[in-house]
Amino acid sequence: MKLAQLFCRTVGVLALAAGSLGTLQAAEKVKVGICVSWPGYAMHHIANTKKLAPDYEFDLVIFNDPIGGHLALAAGQIDVYECTGDYTPIAAERGTPVANVAFTNPSYGVDHIILSPGIDPSSIKGKKVSAPQAYIGHLLMGLFLDQIGVGVGEVDWVNLNSDEAVGPMMSGDLAAAYLYEPWISKVLENRPGAKSGIHTADPAMLKTGIFMDVVYMNTNFVAKRRAAAIAALKARYDAVEYWHDNTKEANAMLAEYLQWPVEDIGYVIGTNGKFFDGGIYMYDFDETARVCGVLDGAPPFELANGSMVDVANYINEWWIKLGLQKKKVDSARAVDCSLVADLMKSGYRQAFSAN
Length: 355
Known about the structure:
Blueprint: H1 2-25, E1 28-34, H2 43-49, E2 56-62, H3 66-74, E3 80-84, H4 88-94, E4 98-108, E5 111-115, E6 128-130, H5 136-147, E7 156-158, H6 162-171, E8 176-180, H7 183-190, E9 195-199, H8 203-206, E10 212-218, H9 219-224, H10 226-245, H11 247-258, H12 262-269, E11 279-280, H13 285-292, H14 308-321, H15 338-345
Helix pairs in contact: 2-10, 2-11, 6-7, 10-11, 10-15, 11-12
């Protein structure tokens, strides 16, 4: 009798263990790409750590190569990709299976064009300027030159990322460069007379909407695994809310994951759970829904309700000016607000201000 009871108990324990293992294995994996090591792109790390979407596991990969990440997304090697919105009209032109599904945060002064000592609008013509091609800095340099009345063909362009431009700026090989922190401070502190020519907290730059981080998704992933796509988007905003409510803890998590000093996280994403003046401004879900046009009300910084496609079309106009694209495209082919709309229909809402 005891042997039979022991057998039954053993079978029961094994069944429970198998059931627990099955629960652990049931988490559906979603591959999330991060285009560069950057706090605003790493919210799914918080979602994983705090188990904000227990039915899903977000496999994160940092590319530090924005174009490489876009290629991986188009090839279906990743499902979700957080990066800058400037690629949207390029995806539309190429017809790749990629859609911009949400605006997440504008640059709020973290991106600058830094001028070498003695450089001004009258002396920059014919000199070397650097910005990474097909990326946010390329656009910012173009708008800066336009603002000072210098044609894009009147300077010598060099394709350098921010960290690559520091050396040539320090040696005087560049008249101007696109930089973000910590590279801005390194140049300004060590090269007397260097100064900022323009930055993305300028109201004229903010209201263009083109210096915006976004969420891209592979459209095949969206079509075949729509529930997972919606869950991935929701998890990101749940993580943003966790960051808002627990900013010190969340910034420490991001610092550990990205291998950044924690104070540098604050200098980008802030410590008030909303923005950093000179860093970025984090949209809550309702702000994203408004710029998508699925919720009434005005988005921040003078953007129009439902203006995602208009912003992408304006980027297209600038890519034509800068020689990256040759003709106008319908950017709506690479914008999909239906996931945000579905979250809205499910009753999901989120609005918060700085702590």
